[in-house]
Write a structure and sequence with these properties.
The chain contains 9 helices and 7 strands; from the N terminus they run E-H-E-E-H-E-E-H-H-E-H-E-H-H-H-H. With about 210 residues, the chain is α/β, with parallel strands linked by helices. The strands form 2 sheets. The chain has a 4-stranded parallel beta sheet with strand order 1-2-4-7. A 3-stranded mixed beta sheet has the order 3-5-6. Helix 3 crosses helix 4 and helix 7 runs antiparallel to helix 8 (about 175-190). The relative contact order is 0.12.
Length: about 210
Amino acid sequence: MLLTGAGRGFCAGQDLSDRNVLPGAEPPDLGYTLGKFYNPLIRRLRALEMPVVCALNGVAAGAGANLALAADIVIAAHSAKFIQAFCKLGLIPDSGGTWILPRLLGPARATALAMLGDSVSAKQAAEWGLIWRCVDDEQLMPEAEALCAHFASQPTRGLALIKKALNASWSNTLDQHLDLERDLQQEAGHTEDYQEGVAAFMEKREAKFKGR
């Protein structure tokens, strides 16, 4: 699955004109908005049994930044940037922001980004390990599409199991995860693609995977 934005930016986040509260008026229920719309989207992206590639074509701000980080692999154009702007509105990074940032960046950088709201260039994001790669603007879509084409030709059932194992690793103990790897490897070992991969290796030819 390839996720990208239309136009100059990837996603500017919430339209604040929808959140302008007049004096004395009832404030919007942001918890309801997250529970109804944003959180289900993040959960579905993470649970998809396929690689999700994000081609970040411009600014990704607020929830838009964390939507991009919900992808499995993020490739960003050199002109793109991430902005965790929540703190400037008195809010917290949502849509998984306070969960994913410490895991990708460590507590020091995650805390600074969340509390300062500074922008992070695509180049810096790649150097920090926030994303997979930063490329020249004109190479963004060709590289992202080539990556998706590569995944489509691979043993896709095995890729789904890799994603399942990596997602579970955030909360499992080592013992729990060793057991999960055992079970998933057992499942992978019974696929046609595994048999084809071994046969192709032994016969010194390109494998022809079917996703089964």
